[in-house]
Task: inverse folding
C-alpha cells in the first residue's frame, strides 16, 4: 500500500566532530519518503525554491517516489544549519531560513487523497489538520511534532492529535506534551489525547512503543561509527510506516514490533554518513542482514534451568 508524507524538503548545512557539509539534501519528507520507499510506494507533498538542485529531485524519482505533490516556487529553498557535539544526541541550531516554506500550504493532488497511510511531518499543527481535511478515510494517520509547537501552538496541536492514530515524539517532547516526568506516564497521558499508539524515540537508546497496556522496547543498533544523526528520526518513521504498509492485514502487535525494528534498522544506516549518502547506496540484502542482526541482539531463551 502507498504512503503519503507531508513535510519539508530542504537544504541542510551540518557540522559534526567528523566533518562539515554545506547545502546537502535534507528535510523531514525527504528522509521519510526515501526510507519508506524501500518497502512501499511513497508520495510527497512539499515545496522547494528555484535554487533546489534538479539532481536531488531525480534521486527521489529514482527511488520511485511520487513528486506530483511537490511544488517549486519563486524564492529560495528552506535551509537549516546545525552543529553536533561529540555526544551527537541533540543539534545546536545555528540558522533557520524558512524561505518558500514560510508560506507553505499543503494541497493534495486528487490522486493522493485516498492514500491509506498518512504521515504528517513536523509542521504547524494547523497545516497538519489541513492535510487531514483533504484525505479520504486513511487506514492509519501518524504525526510528528516538536517542542516549538507543543509550547507555542498547544491548542491547535491537541485538536490535531484528536484525529491522529499514532504519534512519534522524543522523550523530552513526550514529557513536555504530557506534563509528566516519567515516560510511561507521559505516553499514557498522550494516548488519552487521541492517539491509540505512541512511539517515543530515545536516540542512541532506541525507541519505545506504547499501545493500550502493551509496551515494546526496541534498542538502537550498536554502531562503531556515527557521523551525522540528522534525519534519523524521520528515517525511523519512514521505515516503521513502510513496514506497516507492506501488510494488508490487521495492525497487530507482531506487525508493530517488526515495524519498530525496521525503523531502527533504517535509522542505523542514515547516521553512518552525512545527509542521505548512506541511503543512496544501501541494498536490500544489507537491510535484511541488519534486521537479522537485531534478532540476534535481542533474542534470549526462557528462564528454564536457572529456576530452582
Result:
Amino acid at each position: 500500500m502507498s504512503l503519503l508524507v507531508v513535510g519539508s524538503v530542504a537544504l541542510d548545512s551540518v557540522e559534526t566532530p567528523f566533518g562539515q557539509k554545506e547545502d546537502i539534501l535534507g528535510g523531514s519528507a525527504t528522509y521519510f519518503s526515501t526510507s519508506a520507499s524501500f518497502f512501499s510506494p511513497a508520495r510527497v507533498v512539499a515545496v522547494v525554491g528555484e535554487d533546489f538542485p534538479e539532481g536531488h529531485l531525480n534521486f527521489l524519482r529514482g527511488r520511485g517516489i511520487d513528486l506530483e505533490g511537490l511544488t517549486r516556487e519563486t524564492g529560495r529553498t528552506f535551509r537549516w544549519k546545525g552543529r553536533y557535539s561529540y555526544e551527537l544526541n541533540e543539534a545546536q541550531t545555528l540558522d533557520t531560513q524558512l524561505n518558500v516554506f514560510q508560506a507553505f500550504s499543503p494541497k493534495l493532488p486528487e490522486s493522493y487523497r485516498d492514500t491509506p497511510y498518512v504521515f504528517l511531518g513536523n509542521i504547524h499543527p494547523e497545516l497538519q489538520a489541513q492535510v487531514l481535511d483533504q484525505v479520504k478515510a486513511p487506514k492509519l494517520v501518524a504525526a510528528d511534532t516538536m517542542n516549538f509547537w507543543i509550547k507555542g501552538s498547544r491548542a491547535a496541536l491537541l485538536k490535531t492529535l484528536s484525529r491522529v492514530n499514532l504519534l512519534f515524539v522524543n522523550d523530552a517532547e513526550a514529557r513536555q506534551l504530557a506534563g509528566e516526568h516519567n515516560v510511561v506516564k507521559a505516553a499514557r497521558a498522550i494516548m488519552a489525547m487521541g492517539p491509540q499508539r505512541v512511539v517515543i524515540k530515545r536516540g542512541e537508546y532506541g525507541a519505545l512503543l506504547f499501545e493500550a497496556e502493551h509496551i515494546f522496547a526496541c534498542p538502537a543498533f550498536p554502531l562503531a561509527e556515527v557521523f551525522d544523526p540528522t534525519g534519523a528520526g524521520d528515517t525511523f518513521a519512514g521505515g516503521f510506516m513502510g513496514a506497516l504498509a507492506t501488510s494488508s492485514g490487521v495492525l497487530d502487535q507482531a506487525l508493530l514490533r517488526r515495524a519498530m525494528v525496521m525503523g531502527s534498522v533504517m535509522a542505523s544506516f542514515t547516521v553512518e554518513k552525512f545527509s542521505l549518502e548512506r541511503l543512496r547506496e544501501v541494498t536490500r540484502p544489507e537491510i535484511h542482514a541488519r534486521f537479522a542482526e537485531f534478532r540476534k541482539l535481542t533474542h534470549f531463551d526462557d528462564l528454564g534451568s536457572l529456576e530452582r
